[in-house]
Design a protein that fits this description.
Structural class: alpha/beta
Distance between the termini: 50 Å
Strand order of the largest sheet: 3-2-1-4-8-6-9
Helix content: 40-55%
Number of domains: 2
CATH superfamily of the largest domain: Spore Coat Polysaccharide Biosynthesis Protein SpsA, Chain A
Length: 365
């Protein structure tokens, strides 16, 4: 009797999860078919918060300075108490280019750095970036074109991991692609839930109307909390999947760094007030826990595992196939049967840690 109840519960969870990811797949395809705009003129302030990024920040700034666009833009690099050579690298580059300026944040944390940059920005259109990313030469022009011609208050664009080598980085690519695809897909069905702060554009006038727009209590989630606040304020939120707007970032170098990053990301979920985001986070966690339960039941029966693993693997692969075809590296999906299990295990672990771990104000440690 108890076994039958378990099977029914697993089938219910699998059905709900399949329905959710199928909706994301439909939304992702809808946004992927949208046409982009380029060549738009205007003005924007690009914010680049950094903390100890001496190995990557130079390349990031070069990609931002190399934009082929008619947009009048400035780059504000905000130092969050770096102790390496990052500040000197930025200072040297700023001395050679009038578009780039260096300022220092008085308080600690990425959100404080962003707040400092927004306060001194010369333009009302704000773009947020990260110091370990590379932006294509037509990126700013494409972003501004979509932003202006769609009448957006908030524009979110995709990120990919590159370059990728080895099974662990392939796993990160697939895992990251699932987040990007789900975020774009949810927006495609008018339920935006998450985005990436390394590739955002928003109107400061709308931002200034919001109360605590970045939710300063949490070290992570400046992007998601801002999205949720914009959503609650009925701002016009636009997502894009246009190839010209895709930025690239490197995978984390070690398993330890990856888990710390995911713990930081997971820690912000306790601060969610957006209903759709809470429901998605809960269902993903429950589905992952159900898969772990099925694995634990293998010594007695493989039926519980099949009830959740097979439908979850199939629907996740469907979404990731659409994402990978759009952003590249479909060949990594051959690892999906293994990655599916690894993702479930770490998702449950992160969820458990997020419930007991206290929030920190540091975004780099």
């Amino acid at each position: 009797m108890e076994f039958d109840i378990l099977i029914i519960c697993l089938l219910v969870v699998a059905s709900l999860y399949v329905g959710m990811i199928l909706a994301f797949w439909i939304g992702f395809r809808r946004i992927s078919r949208q046409q982009g705009f380029s060549g738009e003129k205007g003005s924007a302030s690009i914010l680049l918060p950094f903390c100890n990024e001496e190995h990557t920040i130079g390349a990031t700034i070069e990609s931002l300075l190399s934009q082929q666009t008619g947009v009048d833009y400035e780059i504000i690099a905000i130092d969050d108490h770096s102790t390496d050579k990052s500040v000197q690298i930025v200072a040297d580059m700023a001395a050679r280019n009038h578009r780039l300026c260096l300022i220092h944040s008085d308080e600690y944390g990425k959100k404080a750095a962003l707040t400092t940059g927004i306060a001194v920005a010369r333009h009302n259109i704000i773009v947020t970036t990260d110091a370990d990313c590379i932006y294509p030469t037509n990126w700013l022009s494409a972003m501004m074109g979509i932003f202006e011609q769609s009448g957006a208050d908030f524009l979110a664009a995709p990120m990919v991991l590159s370059p990728v080598a080895g099974w662990f980085q392939k796993f990160q690519f697939v895992d990251f692609a699932s987040l990007v695809g789900s975020g774009i897909g949810a927006a495609g069905i008018d339920r935006p839930i998450m985005c990436n702060g390394a590739n955002l554009m928003f109107d400061r006038r709308m931002y200034n109307k919001l109360h605590d727009p970045l939710n300063a209590k949490y070290a992570s989630g400046d992007d998601v909390f801002l999205l949720h606040k914009m959503k609650a304020a009925d701002a016009k939120i636009v997502f894009t999947a246009q190839s010209e707007t895709i930025a690239a970032t490197r995978p984390t170098p070690t398993v330890k760094a990856f888990l710390r990053q995911r713990l930081r990301w997971g820690g912000k979920t306790t601060g969610y007030t957006d209903g759709a985001s809470i429901c998605v986070a809960l269902l993903v966690t429950i589905a992952s826990a159900a898969l772990c339960c099925g694995i634990a039941m293998i010594p007695w029966s493989v039926l519980p595992l099949c009830c959740i693993y097979i439908p979850k693997l199939m629907i996740d692969t469907l979404l990731l196939l659409a994402v990978s075809r759009r952003f590249g590296n479909c060949r990594f999906l051959g690892w999906m049967p293994v990655f599916e299990i690894l993702a479930a295990i770490y998702t449950v672990g992160v969820a458990l840690c997020a419930m007991v771990k206290q929030s920190t104000t540091r975004w780099k440690s």
